[in-house]
Structure formats: structure tokens, C-alpha cells
Amino acid sequence: MASGEEDDPIIQEIDVYLAKSLADKLYLFQYPVRPATMNYDDTTHLSAKIKPKQQKVELEVAIETMSPNYCRSKGEQIALNVDGTSIEESSTYSTKMMDKQTFSSIQATTNTTRYAAAVFRKGELHLTPLQGILQMRPSFSYLDKADSKHREREAANEAGDSSQDEAEDDIKQITVRFARPESEQARQRRIQSYEFLQKKQAEEPWVHLHYHGLKDGRSEHERQYLYCQAMDTTENTELVKSPNEYLAMLMPPLAEEKIVKPVGPSNVLSMAQLRTLPLGDQVKTLMKNVKVMPFANLMGLLASGTDSTAVLRCIQQVALLVQGNWVVKSDVLYPKSTCSPHSGVPAEVLCRGRDFVMWRFTHERSLMRKEVAAVIKLPPEDVKEFLEQMAIPRANRGWEFLLPTDHDFVKKHPDVAQRQHMLWMGIQNKLEKVFNFSKEDFLQKKETSAEVSHISGEQRLKAARENAREHHASLQKDLDARRLKASAMSSAPTGSDATVKIKEEPMSDTEESMDTSGAVQNGSLNGYPSTDSPDADPHNEHGNGQASTAELQDFVRNTFRKHFVLCLSEVKRLFNLHLASLPTGHCVFGHVTDRMLQDTILHSHCKQILVPFPPQTSASADEQKVFVLWESGETFDKHRQILFEIFMKNYRVRRNVIQSRLYRNSAMRSPNLMWTGCLRSVASA
Fold first, then answer.
1. How far apart are CA 453 and CA 265, in angstroms?
2. Cys bridge to 381: 311, 332, 342, 664, which one at CB 3.0-4.6 A?
């Protein structure tokens, strides 16, 4: 040490003083976008304000508009974009020119305990701790204001150009949801979010300040507070330290660093962390996350060597046995004093509804969601959540239990299965009282569905064929009797006997086939030949051709006055339905072919239009034959004919094209309601 002191002699001793007068008010301003030689000392400062808690400072400085480096046209354009053409008190630039600039601060560092401002005078060094170090950068908030003005103008223009007849009130369904309780980790993330920080910054009010230049008298007065006011050492105990204390301050002892564990989601737990918990907590955590699990899988997730008896004792406290598998209890998922995250229903009501679903799964493999909702009377979101926890949807079978029945566990642990069965009997009694049902209600449905499921497809098809044959035989017998009677009346001479011979022919396969509704396919409807029947009589047996034609025309007129536009296949379908609706024995129609039907349509003030359907369409030839009502004697005829002409050019037309075409003719300038109703009748058909 002696040699070291000789090599490093003390040249001068300087007294250091700690000044505290400005300790909580002194800020260091830095201008990182400006060189040190170009300061703002001689620039006119228009205003200054601060938010002390956030250490946020804003300064407004004037811009020298008369400088040769200032672009006057650009300044006027910026002022126009920001304030517009109106003159208001709240305008940013009152001179219609960008004549000022705003500087906004950001914190250079959050910890300023190591920084101080020093002043050297008469061999004394005076230190004043800094309250903050702020970097002043240009603020471009005026651009945000210009953008908002631009969006307002665009919104006003769009609102002015919108058409009144196209405007419709949007009716939207509002769903009320209750916010779930916020966890501590979610609260920390929310506090650290940008939106929360912006909100906190906006809550603190601005404190307006008076700016004094560098050479101002008030500034000189304030600079005197940078010197320590009490020169005696009793007031500066912070700098009076023993050598050991001073050395400890320079070289603090090493402290063990705390290992910060990564913060993960609240519902995620690693297997290593899981196995540090007690066995009961391990089982509860696993069941709460998995919801449904076989006992063998549970043992596989636990540490090797875990006693299965102890696991069985723990699992019965947090889960119930359903079809040999363990399902977590409802009160574990929905503790007391909580509510549904979807609908806000209390936990007690949710537990009863979920217990009902679990009880039903103890007797059935599949459930229908509507049946469950009708009993427990909970919102659809909660019912769906119950089913998703323990079942999966199946096509045409409702919701099926998630796992197959574990018969091995039931055989291996009959005592546990019997205990769980007794527990379910108690739960069933409570559910019957709460929901007012009996077990027999569901068992009868189950037995009925089981009986139906045992009938094979071949048996159903055979039964349907037998019913079809019986029904067709009765219809054929009735038809033969009527034909016999009609033939005898027409061929027998007056006053003499007549002999009638009927040729019996076996029924073909086509005549035997029936559809599922019991109507004869390719045969007769209601005992009379249809337009598609191959057995229809080509001659008019009744001698009433004129009556048949007149009634067919009446049918066509009434049909087209109701539908306006129809394809040929649809007309045939409606005609067959009309035949089926007639009472037995009442028919004036003979054999009606497609050609007869088309001719009748064309002679009933109707017309065929050629709609240019796309070439890839799968429509049949009958479906592409489109017939329309051309003249009906109404005021809509001219409008409808124009629409038909438009649709003959394209099968898909926009509304504005139709509107402009109708308005093009002065004679067609009718109220919107008239041509809108005409358009709906044509387009919907």
C-alpha cells in the first residue's frame, strides 16, 4: 500500500456538498434529434405543461416562418388539412400556416438514483439529484387530427350518396354475457397493456407552466438553488461515511440472484410440477383438466409405484363413475359463489344440470341435446358445454359418450362400482324432486328406441312392399270396376243385353313399386291416370274431351295467376297433386301428355321464355322449359313483360339494371312499391 500511495499522490482535495432544494423538481432535457450546436435557447417558447406522476412534458415552440428555409406552401397545406377552411377558436394553427411545433417527452431511464447535476464553484462541488431524464422529440399529433378530419369528410360523403330506397335498418341480436372473474395473472397483463397505459396517461391532468429563458432573472434565481444552502457537515450526513461503509457502497457484497420462474397460463401445469403436489391434489388437477378418464390412464399419468388403493380413495372424492370411466364432479368445475361464464347462471344451478346429464349417461350411450335442454331448462351455451365435456356429436345420433364402457374396471373393482351405484341412486332421487320427472319416462323411450333399432333394413323394405301391394291391389280393383261399368254402358244397345269381356293382365314391376308416402310411382293417382302414367288410356273413355280441356285450362290459368313463372316439370308436379286432391270417382281428365299440357299453357295467355342458363347447369330438359304469365289484364302486365325480356338476356340480373330499365320509359314511372312487388313475384318464382 505504501508503494501504491507513492505512485498515486493526492494533488487536490475538493469538498463535495449535496444540495436538496431542487431534488424532486430537477429534470434533464435531451434533444436526440438535434445537434448540440443547434439548441433552442433563443427560440420563442409558446407554452409548457407537465404531468408530474408520469413525468410527461410537452413544449410548444414557434417556427420561424420568415426563414428562407421554410416552405410556405407546405405549411399552408398542413394547416388546411388539420383545421380545414373554417376559423374556430380550437384551431391548431390560427394563422392558417404551420407556425409552431410541439415537443413531447419520453423517459430515457426509469431509475435516476445514480444521476445528479453538478455545479463547481470556488473549489466546491455541489450535487443535486435528478428527478428524471427526459428526451424531447417532435410530436406529430397534428397528423392524427388531419386523419380524423379526412375520415369525417368521407363518412359524410358516403352518408349523402346512399339511396333512401336501399337503406334498411340493421336489426342485430344482442347477447348479454357476464364477465368471468379476473385472475391475478390476467390483471397483471391488463395493467401492462398499451391500452391501459394510455388510459392512465389520459386520466392525469396537465399542469400548465410558465417558461423562462436562460438569461431571465427568474432563471438566475432558480439556479442558486443548485448550491447547498447549509454548508456545515451535520446537514450532509449522506456524504459522511467511514472507510468501511464507503468501500461497501463502492463494492456491495454479492447477493444471490432470485430465479424468476416463467409465468404460464393458469390452467397449464407441467408434469414435474404436478408430481410435487400431494396425491389428492394431483388427482384433482388431472380430473379437472381432462374431465373424463379411465382409471388405467390415470394411473399411467401418476408417478410409477403409486398405490392404486390410495388413488381410488382420492378419485372418489373428486369424480363419479359413469360407464366404468371417471367423470369429474360438477362442484369441482363449478365451485360455490361462482357463475357461468356464458350466461351468469349460479354454480348451484349448473351443478344440478350437469349431474342430470351425467346421470343420463349412466343409462344411455347417446343423448339428444333438445331433450336435455327441455328438462334442465338452462341456456343452450351451458348445455353444450356440459355435453362437450363428456361426449362427442354423432350424425343422426345426438351426443355419444366420449369413451367406451370400461367393463374391466367394473369387474376388477366391484365394491367401488356398487358404492358408486348407490351414490347415483341418491343423486337420482334429488334430481327427480328438482326436475319433476321419473326414471320410467326415460326408460320407456329407451326400450321403444331399442325395439325400433332391432328391425333390420330388409324387414322394413319387405313390410313397405307388402303395404304397397295391398294398397295398389285395392286401387286397381276399384279402377277395373269403374272401367267395366263404363264399357258396359257405352257398348250395350238399348233394350238388349250386352256381354262385356275384360282382359286380365298381370301387374308389372313398375305398377307394384311404391314410394315411401304410399303414392304409386309411374302409375295412377287417386285412381286416375297422371301425366306420367304409361297405362293411361290414350282415348277418352268418358266422351267428355271438351270438359277435360276446359278444366285443364282452368287449372293452368289458376296456377299461373298464383305462381307467374314455372318450369314444365313444376307444372306437371302441381297437376299430379291436383289429381290426387280430387275425390274418388270425380275426374274429367283423360290421358294428358306433355305436349297437351304445353299447348294448354300457350293458349292460356302464357308464353315460353328462353332463359340463358349456364351451360354447366344440372337442370333437366323440362326444368329449362320456362313458361310465364304474359297477359293477365292487370296493371302489372307491362312491368312484368319488361322483366321477362330482361331475364331472357341473362338468368341473373342486378336490381339497379331493372330499376334503370323501368325508369327509361316515361310510361313505366310508377311507384317503387308497384314494380318491387312485380319483381318479387318474378324473381322468387
1. 47
2. 342
Q: Phi first, then psi: what are they for 353, rounded to 5°? A: -65, -40
- Least confident span in 113-122, 164-173, 320-329: 164-173
Distance CA 351, CA 346 (A): 9
pTM: 0.35
Give the number of C-alpha atoms closer than 13 A to the C-alpha of residue 643, restricted to the C-beta side.
25
CB 315 within 8 A of CB 283: yes
pLDDT in tens, 131-183: 899 999 998 888 887 787 777 777 777 765 554 444 445 566 777 776 667 77
- Measured between alpha carbons, how far apart are the two ends of the chain, in Å? 110
Q: Is 594:568 a contact under the CB 8 Å cutoff? A: yes
Q: How far apart are CA 670 and CA 302, in angstroms?
A: 81
Distances (CA, A) of 142 to 66, 98, 640: 21, 10, 58
Q: For residues 80 and 83, what is the distance between their CA atoms, to the nearest angstrom? A: 5
Torsion sign, CA atoms 30, 35, 41, 43: negative
Cα(230)–Cα(211) distance, rounded to whole angstroms? 29
Q: What order do you get walking across the sheet with 124-129 strand by strand?
A: 15-18, 124-129, 116-121
Amino acid at 608: Q
**Strand, helix or coil for residue 166:** coil
> In the structure grid, which three cell numbers stand for residue 180, read together?
368471468
CA nearest 486: which of 502, 506, 471?
A: 502
Q: 61 has which bridge partners?
A: 45, 101
Beta strands in 174-276 (DSSP E): 207-209
C-alpha to C-alpha distance for 68 and 132, rounded to whole angstroms? 37
Average pLDDT over residues 574-584: 77
For the ranges 94-103, 213-222, 360-369, the maximum mean pLDDT occurs at: 360-369
Using alpha carbons only, what angle is made at residue 92 by residues 105 and 75, rounded to the nearest 5 degrees? 95
CA distances from 562 to 108, 375, 553, 558, 574 (A): 80, 44, 14, 6, 12
Residues 222-233: what's their mean pLDDT? 78
- Stated length of the chain: 685
Domain ranges of the chain: 15-63+99-155+204-250, 276-454
Give, in order, the Cα–Cα distances in Å from 493 to each of 293, 426, 544: 90, 88, 20
d(CA 408, CA 405): 9
Q: What is the share, in percent, of the chain residues with pLDDT greater than 70?
A: 72
How many Cβ atoms are within 10 Å of 253's Cβ, its own excluded? 5
Rounded to an integer, what distance in angstroms lies between the CA atom of residue 282 and that of residue 259? Answer: 25
State pLDDT tens for residues 331-341. Answer: 999 998 888 88
- What's the pLDDT tens digit per position in 594-632? 888 888 888 888 888 888 777 655 566 766 788 888 887
Closest CA to 463 of 448, 452, 449: 452
